[in-house]
Structure of 3-deoxy-7-phosphoheptulonate synthase:
Amino acid sequence: SREVCPEPSIIELAPGLTIGGEQLVVMAGPCSVEGEEQLIETARAVKAAGATVLRGGAFKPRTSPYAFQGLEEEGLRLLDLARQETGLPIVTEVVNPRDVELVARYADILQVGARNVQNFPLLKLLGQQDKPVLLKRGMATTIKEFLMSAEYILSEGNRRVILCERGIRTFETATRNTLDISAVPVLKEQTHLPVVIDPSHSTGHASLVPSMCYAAVAAGCDGLLVEVHNSPETASCDGPQSLRPSDFAIVMEKLRQFAAAA
Ligand code: PEP
Ligand code: MN
């Protein structure tokens, strides 16, 4: 908490890249890794637009067991290829404790999905890794519970935890979830950890993503996690909320203009 650690934590994500300081870190890429062409094309586009981390799921925690579950290790290999092609570090989810070692071999940042926010054995294991962890808030997790989940990782010795607000479940159905934008200043008041906003899973609609990116930055977040797909129409997962590369480039340009004007 802020009481124990009054200064904000500046966390190294990869050599030469930190989060929690002055710079906004934009993590972008497809929901899932689907194949080489899809991933490399999208990775090149997000890099050209100014993203500094590539996202992409190889292990997908889907609501339906019949939905696409991810390419698993083949997906990790493709992420490694995309990293070699673009130089972008990789953030990818680990769903099952038995895969932590495998995913940690490929990933630069280990992601915990909303559904696993209270998977305590997974969190403890991630607390023993030498990689930063992006911890997503669950869809029905209070701030206090969210911070206790972060504590499970920190207390095992891993100090590199990044908090991610990705929308919570409310009565509203116009959006996929309700983005709790106030979580940014609340978390900033209560903790020293960097805070990232996911405008994609919180809204569920690509048309709403740009305005939530700007709102998140205005609220003081340290980073964004944005789904971008080279062909949202044919995406095997979360196409409707994925930005086209050209729309993502417009968002990035506006963010640069805001930063220059600030
Ligand atoms: C994701 O970011 O790939 C994801 C599955 O999101 P969430 O865990 O927030 O639903
Ligand atoms: Mn997704």
The longest strand covers residues 25-29. The chain has one domain: 11-261.
